[in-house]
Amino acid sequence: MESWDQRVEKFWNSAGGKRPEQLRTELAGLVQDRDKQDPRVLFEIASLHDYLGEEEQAVGPYRAALDAGLDAPQHDEALLQLASTLRNLGQCTQSIELLRQIPSGSPIFTDAQAFLALALHDAGQPIEALQLALSAIARRASLYTRAINGYAAELGAPAGAEQR
């Protein structure tokens, strides 16, 4: 018999191309026997709203899931997804604050850095956004880590200043 987590994974893996009402019905079936205040239930409900482009409806369940003590790995996913949703709703400052909470040891840290760069850009901080993106790339670079980091640092330096 499949575990609840396996059924949830199967739901998301098969979501592409389905009509919104079909997805709502399937998710309702998945959560029907669980406590409606369960952080995982709230997270999955928020995720479906997000997936369907219903960002405003996703915010409340994301916040409730986080407040209810959502565990890893979904905790960091909820932070990232809520932050992305808030960015899409024009709330860049809140988005940036949430993305900065994702620890460097998280499996989705690099993903979070990409979303943070987007939020910084939207917040009118394009240099910091580009520096962050370049730094994230530098951590995975094979030969030019030092050069990429150097160029990223130069972006914030006054014109004419040399980096060593």
UniProtKB/TrEMBL annotation:
Cross-referenced InterPro entries = TPR-like_helical_dom_sf, TPR_5
Q: Which Gene3D superfamilies match?
A: Tetratricopeptide repeat domain
Which residues, if any, are the signal sequence? Answer: none
Q: Report the residue ranges that make up the Tetratrico peptide repeat group domain in this protein.
A: 40-155
Name this polypeptide is given: Tetratrico peptide repeat group 5 domain-containing protein
Q: What is the lineage of its organism?
A: Bacteria, Bacillati, Actinomycetota, Actinomycetes, Micrococcales
